[in-house]
Amino acid sequence: SSSKEDDQSTLSTVRKRAGAYDVYAPSGPIGIVVDSTERGPSVHSLKSNSPMHGLIMAGDLIVALDDEDTRNMTAGELTRLMAKKSRQRERKITLYSMEGY
Length: 101
What we know:
It is a single chain. By secondary structure, the protein is α+β, with helices and mostly antiparallel strands. Helices cover 24% and strands 36% of the residues. It has helices spanning 2-15, 75-84; strands at 19-26, 32-37, 40-46, 61-65, 68-69, 90-97. A hairpin with a 2-residue loop joins strand 2 and strand 3. The protein is globular and about 30 Å long.
């Protein structure tokens, strides 16, 4: 059981840093609610069935999708782009954390 605790402390250490990070979303709906903000689309919340729990945090900015800059998109534009790409095996989502956790 000590190795599981080690894994969790390593993960929390990594996630405490502010800055950009990439996650890979599976095909299909990913269950995130996106908000439009002055700085670009941000994660408002995750639905209970989202496969992205533990990977994406509410409040983080979504700055790119498959390396396409999304900072000037509205939440609606980003949601449509994600839906258009939902049949891909995976989608690379680049997020930016404004602060540590």
